[in-house]
Amino acid sequence: MTAGPPLVVGVTGASGAPYAVRLIRALAELEVPTHLILSGHGWRLLRLEAGIGSEEELRARVGGDWGAIRLFTNDDRGAQPASGSAPSRGMVVCPCSMGTLAAIAHGHSRSLIERAADVTLKERRRLVLVPRETPLSEVHLTNMLSVTRAGATVLPAAPGFYGDPDGIDDLTDFIVARVLDHMGIDHGLGPRWKGEG
Length: 197
Ligand SMILES: Cc1cc2nc3c(=O)[nH]c(=O)nc-3n(C[C@H](O)[C@H](O)[C@H](O)COP(=O)(O)O)c2cc1C
Description:
By secondary structure, this protein is α/β, with parallel strands linked by helices. It has 7 helices and 6 strands; from the N terminus they run βαβααββααβαβα. A 6-stranded parallel sheet has the order 3-2-1-4-5-6, with helices on both faces.
């Protein structure tokens, strides 16, 4: 297992369940200690877009070693990721709904995901948010600016096509690779741009 404090991963109800599954699988394969939290709508989207309806089904889909992953319930704002005194290497919310992004922008902390993100910002740790929405309203853009000013990285689920992707898996890997890059986690996902030709 990779040494060091856990990465907190939130999964919320924006379209993009394959990104969440791929990210969790990559972290399991890399044996990165992970504290995983899914919102109610995160589970709903996992069911709808990936056919995953329970922790057992998620474990089966992720495969590999689940030993480094610990699942928390989103209601429990007293769990470990809710406190700044609990070490972490930062947090990723992938995918991140506009609702959760708004709550983070305003410090609501009404769920463990929101609280853990709030803690990540106050502790000046890395926070990466992966929203998926289109088009964007002024409210969305303002909230994205607020979290960026507070120290978060907004990394939209907008994969590039310059790497000649073969299909959905390659496009999914593109985003997960950028997330891992921003968290400072070494990985072998997807090609890196080396210039044309
Ligand atoms: C099928 C489906 C797709 C959705 N897609 C998105 C989306 O792409 N982006 C988004 O911000 N919200 C989306 N939503 C709405 C959120 O799930 C909803 O605002 C929810 O309250 C978010 O709660 P959470 O952030 O606690 O998961 C979707 C909802 C459903 C049911």
